[in-house]
Amino acid sequence: MAGNSRLTVAVHALCWLALAERHGHTGLSSDQIAASLESNPVAVRRALGPLRTAGLVTAGKGPGGGWSLRVEAARISLADVYAAVEPGAVFALHPHPPRPDCPVGHGIAPVLEDVYENVGQAVIGELARHTIAGVLDTLLEQHPLPMPWAGVPVPRP
């Protein structure tokens, strides 16, 4: 079973916005973010929509607009991002109730609810320990690009 990548895409986009901000850019277009993701601008807008709803990013209109962080990167935890893009429980129970007269079907839901609740708390706890700024700092330190920073036009003076 494949996992979904909404959290990864959102963290990538937020790190890209934070890096652009560090280099003096006030906003990036969906095209610029899509280039980093090797994606398309529509997918970027779809990915950033929940982050805008959560108040983590803002989207300006017109020339000089674009996406930018609304909250300082050091104050955005991965748990915040997860809550925005993955609302609900980490795991779900059956899509329909199992057979109640089955020895397993009778009691599986309450047992798994407890397990899943603990897993969810562990996931959120670990994600809360990391921020967008921290992820960006770690990736720049551990995996520096072997060429000058590129991908976003130089800011106008």
TrEMBL record:
InterPro entries per the UniProt record, alphabetical: Tscrpt_reg_Rrf2, WH-like_DNA-bd_sf, WH_DNA-bd_sf
**Which PANTHER family does the entry mention?**
HTH-TYPE TRANSCRIPTIONAL REGULATOR YWGB-RELATED (PTHR33221:SF15), WINGED HELIX-TURN-HELIX TRANSCRIPTIONAL REGULATOR, RRF2 FAMILY (PTHR33221)
Tell me the protein's name.
Answer: Rrf2 family transcriptional regulator
Organism of origin: Paractinoplanes aksuensis
